[in-house]
Amino acid sequence: LIKIDATYAQCAMTQNGDCCQMKNSTHFRPHRAIDPGLEGVIAAETKLSDVDGNAGRLIIAGVDVAALSARFDFEDVLLMLWDGAFQDLPSRPQVQAALGRARALAFDRLLKGRDRRPAMEALRQALCGVEDGDGLAVALDLVATCAVATAAITRHGLGLPLIPPDPSLSHGEDLLTMIVGHTPSRAQVRGLDGYLVTVSDHGLNASTFAARVVASTQAGLTSAVVAGLSALKGPLHGGAPGPVLDMLDAIGTPERAEAWIEAAFARGERLMGFGHRIYQVRDPRADALEALIAILPKNLGRLEMAQKIEQTALKRLSERYPHRALQTNVEYYTALLLEALQIPRAAFTCIFACGRILGWIAHAREQVATGRIVRPQSLFTGALRPDYAA
Ligand code: ACO
Hints:
The chain is mainly alpha-helical and 390 residues long. It is built from 17 helices and three strands. It has helices spanning 9-14, 18-21, 65-71, 74-82, 92-112, 119-128, 136-157, 171-180, 186-198, 206-216, 221-232, 241-251, 257-266, 284-294, 300-320, 330-340, 348-370; strands spanning 49-52, 57-60, 63-64. A three-stranded antiparallel β-sheet has the order 1-2-3. Helix 4 (74-82) runs parallel beside helix 17 and helix 7 runs parallel beside helix 8 (171-180).
C-alpha cells in the first residue's frame, strides 16, 4: 500500500489479484475485511496536502506546515490551494479586493435574516444562503460568508452590535476585527492568519471526505462545503477545542491534573486535544500553533500551565494505552491560541471552518475533475427471508 492506484487499493490489501481481474464483472466483490472507519483505505488522489502520521510531517500546498504557518497569510494560501482548481484565479491583490467585496455583500445578506441557534448551526444556515455553483465567484462568496457569518454569529450570541466588514483589510485582519470589535495588533493578525493556513487542509479527514463525496455527485460547491461543515461540527473532529478549554478550566492548576485525569478516565471520558487516527507521533500543527501563541506575550502564563498539564496527560495516556501512541493533536493548541486572540470559545469550530473551507473547496474541485462519483461497496450480512429465497 505504499504507492498504488486507488482503484486497486482494496484488492492490493488482500494481496490477491483475483478481485482485480474480476473488477469489471458482475461478480466483482470487494475484499471482505471490513473497517467501518475506512482505516488505511485509499479513497482519493490529492495534490493538496500530505499527512505523514508516522513522521509527524504535514505538507500543505507543497510547503511544510511550520513554514506555512509562520510565513503565509490567508490570501497566499487560497491562491496556493486553489491553483489549478479555477481557470480564472486573479492575482494576489485582486484576490484580496474580491474577498473584501464578497464580505461586504455577505454582511448585507446576513443582516436580512438572523437567528439565535448554536453557532455552527447558524453558520450552516448562512452558508446555505450562497447559491450553488462551481465557479470562482461562488468559491469566494463561500469563504467570505463563512468569515462574516462567524463574526456576526459570535457577536450576536454575546449581545454585542455587529461590526461590518472593511473590504480594504486582509481577510484575516478583517475577520479578527469583526469578532473582537477593535483593531488587532500585528502579532494578533499573524496569529489568526497562521492558524487559518495551518488548518487549511489535512488530507482526507472526515469533513473533507464528506465534501468530496457530495462534490462527486456534481451537486456544487455550496453543497460540498455545507457537507464538510456538518461533519466538522462533531466533537470527535472540529468540536474539540472549546471542550479543551473547559477541561483546562476544570483542572485549574498543573498539580491537580493527575487526579482530574484519573477521574475522567474512571467516567469513561476522553481527554480533549489528544489522540489522532493518523498521527502516531505529535501532530506537527500543535508545534506550529504553539509557536504562534509564543508571539502573543500576554498569554505566556496560560501557555506554561497548559504545557505542564499536557505533559501529565501524555504520561497518563501512555501508561493507560502503552500500545497506542496517543499524542497532542491540533485542537489542544488551537484552543489556547484562539483564547489568546480573545475569540469566544463558542466560535472556535466556526473559526476552524473559516480556515478549512479553502481545503474543502480545493478538494471538491479536485474530485469533480476526476469525473467519478464516490460509491464504495458494502458487505451484506443480513439474511434472505426463507419465503423469498430463490
Ligand atoms: N483520551 C482518552 N482515551 C483516548 C483518547 C483520548 N483523547 N483518544 C483515544 N483514546 C482511547 C480510545 O478510547 C481507545 O480505547 P479503547 O480501545 O479502550 O476503546 C484507544 O484510545 C484507541 O483509540 P483510537 O483507535 O486511537 O482512536 P480513534 O482513531 O478512533 O479516534 C480521535 C481518534 C477521535 C481523535 C480520538 O483520539 C479522540 O476522541 N480524541 C479526543 C477528541 C479530540 O481531541 N478530537 C480532535 C481530533 S483532531 C481533528 O479532528 C481536527
